[in-house]
Every structure is written in C-alpha cells, then in structure tokens.
Design goal:
Blueprint lengths: L1 H14 L49 H20 L11 H5 L1
Length: 101
C-alpha cells in the first residue's frame, strides 16, 4: 500500500502541486490478523457497539507503520522541496499521545 501512496504523491508532485492535506492518518494501517477489538474500558456509558468510541481500536489506530509511512512521504516531498525551497509537508496540531502512541 505504501508504494501506491508514494506513486500517487509523486504523480501529483510531478504535476506541480505545492503540497497535500492528508486526513485520518492514524487509520492508514490495519493489523493484518484482522482481530476483533475489545470494548473500551473508557467508553461513555451511552456508547453502543456499532459506534467507533465503544471499542479500543488497538488494531486499526496508530499502528507503528503509520510513522514509517509518514517518514517515507516526507522524504519524497523533501526531495522536491530541495529543488525549489517550497514547504510541502507539515502537520496539523495534534496531541503527542495521538502521534506517537
């Protein structure tokens, strides 16, 4: 999957785009064992099993591969930025727990 993302980023960089907005980054990867999530001990009492907040989401949220993917995308963007000094890769303010947990 990562190579496909890099190919798409490169395609658009070659077209001259200045940068990208990427949402839902913590959800880029899913554990390939496709395990069921456990109910969250911190779920609100009104949360229902069909709601995202009901579950721990440990197998689909902020897996280690996410940071590797971001590093690869950053490296590609930086290669283009080295030629014209444009900043193409940044981040939205988010809690450090979300980024590195």
């Amino acid at each position: 999957m990562l190579q496909e993302i890099l190919d798409i980023v490169k395609f658009w960089l070659d077209k001259g785009v200045d940068g990208f907005r990427v949402d839902a980054v913590p959800h880029m990867y899913e554990d390939q064992r496709f395990l069921d999530h456990a109910p969250s001990a911190e779920r609100p009492p009104e949360a229902l099993p069909d709601e995202y907040r009901y579950w721990e989401n440990t197998y689909t949220y902020n897996l280690p591969q996410v940071l590797d993917a971001l590093a690869a995308i950053r490296k590609l963007c930086d290669e283009y930025s080295a030629t014209d000094n444009k900043t193409r890769f940044g981040h939205r303010h988010q809690s450090i727990k979300c980024i590195v947990s």
